[in-house]
Amino acid sequence: MKIATYNVNGVNGRLPVLLRWLEETQPDVVCLQELKAPQEKFPEQAIKDAGYNAIWHGQKSWNGVAILAKDFEIKELRRGLDGDPEDLHSRYIEAMVNNVIIGCLYLPNGNPAPGPKFDYKLQWFERFTAHAAKLLEYDLPVILAGDYNVIPTERDAYKPERWVEDALFRPETRQAFKNLLAQGWTDAIRKLYPDETIYTFWDYFRNAYGRNAGLRIDHFLLSPQVNGRLKAAGVDRAVRGWEKTSDHGPVWIEIED
């Protein structure tokens, strides 16, 4: 089973790119982030015509997450996280697909830091970490995929010294990611490629993509029950070079059924 995660940076504005990528790569399951579309504006018919079922959690202008599946039923388990009834951001959706729990997340950016947005990022991270711990208790295969807005280590950033004060790379953010991994999750990309320079995001400015001046901020975390089934992983880097594309590239893994 091939599972992908892709921050589309506007599902309607980037729809031709998304549909082309789906056609060329044919992933079985896709987690999308940053839909930037209210619930009723999600392009359900176009996605269905491409061969995919979909569930989504939209929000006008910002955020938004979705799970697509080809030839599999999507059984929605939850949308949103516990712990803050006033948090109306559409940042998490979870489903059972082919006997695997898939959590699709768009973790807050948190800039400028320090400040209220960074506080929200860390609070959301705490709520997500608490939910992740509950998922591990089920003793089921779980995959948590999405845009974490976390640069885990210096290896994951071009010129990391430029990111020291950024919310994606501040010590508090990296420690929160370490705390999450310490529950028993495996970073799929780093399991297979422990030392390679791999990026998933390239800014639109200063020819970042052409210079390969990127960041690795889109991650797959695997529970112990699925970790041993990991066969392959990678980034569809070329998609970032397409016309009118997202500033993220799709990331994917393959697991044995």
UniProtKB/TrEMBL annotation:
Q: Where is this site: Important for catalytic activity?
A: D218
Read off the PANTHER family from this record.
EXODEOXYRIBONUCLEASE III
As recorded in UniProt, its EC number(s) are 3.1.11.2
Family, similarity comment: Belongs to the DNA repair enzymes AP/ExoA family.
Q: Which cofactor does it need?
A: Mn(2+); Mg(2+)
Q: Where is the Endonuclease/exonuclease/phosphatase domain?
A: 4-248
This protein is called what?
Exodeoxyribonuclease III
| Coiled coil segments of this chain | none
Keywords for this protein = Hydrolase, Magnesium, Manganese, Metal-binding
One Pfam match: Exo_endo_phos
- Catalytic residues identified in the record: Y106, D147, H248
- Record site feature (Interaction with DNA substrate), residues: H248
Q: Where is this site: Transition state stabilizer?
A: N149
Q: Which InterPro entries match?
A: AP_endonuc_1, AP_endonuclease_F1_BS, AP_endonuclease_F1_CS, Endo/exonu/phosph_ase_sf, Endo/exonuclease/phosphatase, ExoIII-like
Q: Which GO terms describe its biological process?
A: DNA repair
Q: What is the uppermost EC class here?
A: hydrolase
Gene Ontology terms for molecular function: DNA binding; double-stranded DNA 3'-5' DNA exonuclease activity; endonuclease activity; metal ion binding
- How are cofactors bound according to the entry's free-text note? Probably binds two magnesium or manganese ions per subunit.
Residues involved in Mg(2+) binding: N7, E34, D147, N149, D247, H248
- Lineage start: Bacteria, Pseudomonadati, Bacteroidota, Sphingobacteriia, Sphingobacteriales
